[in-house]
Amino acid sequence: MMRRLALALPLLLLSAPLGAQVAPLGAQVAPAASVSGGLAPVNPALLAKARPVAAIILPDGTMERMMGPMMQKIMGPMMDSITEMPVRELLKAGGMDAVEADKLNPATINEIMAIMDPNFRKRMDIMTNSMMPAIGQFMGRFEPDMREGMAEAFASRYDAAELDQINAFMKTPAGAKFGSGFMELATDPHYIGKVQTMIPAMMQAMPEIMKKSMAQMEALPKPRTYNDLTPAERKRLEALIGADAKKVAQ
Q: Which of 213, 156, 164 shows the shortest CA–CA distance to 41?
């Protein structure tokens, strides 16, 4: 249990800051990757007006700055906040029965890992400090696509007059400062601090959130096992995965 918790913790730490940064991009990037087939064509004239706005908001190097030095400065305090939470709260969020979890003592991750792995914090620091720059470099490769997606989103939401007004604002000193720093607001310590205070409440709410989902899923037929498949389905499954279907399904 503790090994799984130790491995999952960095992902939990990353989920809040990543969600804060990637969520605004989700609507911009998704059309090119997943829902482009269902979108109406973008007006080329509006797209031409929208591209300069996107270029100001997402200049080259933004993602690498956000996910590198900026994020590394706030990961430490966020780590401190989460590792001081009682383990039982994290276990409840992970699906453990609340009654059973509450029987556990309110030991924190820090207290337990001080015994299990004295180098736990160093491991987490290495993982997060190496992951964030790497993620930034990876995402930086897709900035041109992100900018184009952002421009398409603007072109689909605003008319020509509105885009002219936005462009005019972006050409002012205040507009240029606002636009070029807009994406990086997601890594501002003031904003992240508010997100950080939400995490304990989110952990407490997760069992109830999961309960509602589980209740709906219980109404669905259970997934089939390999033994439930017909010979034709087993053969098709084996052809799809290129391996012994029985071994993979177990």
A: 156
Q: Which of 9, 236, 239, 215 is nearest to 113 (CA)?
A: 9
Q: How many CB atoms lie within 10 A of CB 182?
A: 14
Domain edges within the chain: 2-28+40-219, 222-250
CA distance 21 to 140: 13
Give me the DSSP letters along 223-248: PP-GGGS-HHHHHHHHHHHTS-HHHH
| pLDDT score recorded for residue 17 | 45
Closest CA to 107 of 120, 123, 95, 89: 89
Q: What pLDDT does residue 185 have?
A: 86
Q: What is the pLDDT of residues 84-137, one digit of tens each?
A: 888 887 777 777 777 888 888 888 888 888 888 888 888 888 877 888 888 888
Q: Please write the tens of the pLDDT for every residue from 125-179.
A: 887 788 888 888 898 999 999 999 999 999 999 999 999 999 999 999 999 999 9
45, 160 Cβ separation under 8 angstroms: yes
Q: What is the separation, in whole angstroms, between the first and last Cα of the chain?
A: 22
